[in-house]
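Dear support,

I submitted the protein below through the web form. The confirmation email said the job was done, but the results page showed an empty box. After a refresh the structure appeared. I'm attaching both so you can tell me whether what I see now is the final result or a partial one.
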Amino acid sequence: MTRATIPLDPIKQKAKARIAYNKWWAANREKLNRERHLRYQTDPEYRAQAVNRQARYRKAVGPLVRDGTRHRVIKGVKTQVFSMSQTAEYLRRGLQTIRNWEKAGLIPTPTVGGVHRCYTPGQVQLLQELVEIYDRLAREPAARAAEIKEKSLEIKSKWSKA
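What the results page shows now:
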């Protein structure tokens, strides 16, 4: 008699695969880093690719200034931007709250160039207005959904200009 195997939940499968990968990486990290470093030193084509990749990243992200501020060029103007964690800290909210607002469609995903979510000062101000509405409506829950939806539409219309 053979026993039927029950397939794992996809979330458990991903977690199991991540654990296996982390174990593999811990066991092979030093060897792989040595090989990559050696290839960087001996293979001019690989080195050029790495330098170009780093230059593209630096161009997209911009240099990190000593005081922790980032700048991006937006429509030809160098503008200070704030990381998602800086924005969440300023708003006194968690990172997941901002992500949830994006998923729910309350705010657009930031479109500032680069590889990480960054917010301009104008966008942070719009988010602050949304936080103020949430805080006020937490005390007055009566027309909460309608007002949040209305403010969300207003934020979306102002977002690209901010």
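Response: this is the final, complete result; the empty box was a page-load delay. Residues 76 and 97 are 31 Å apart (CA to CA).
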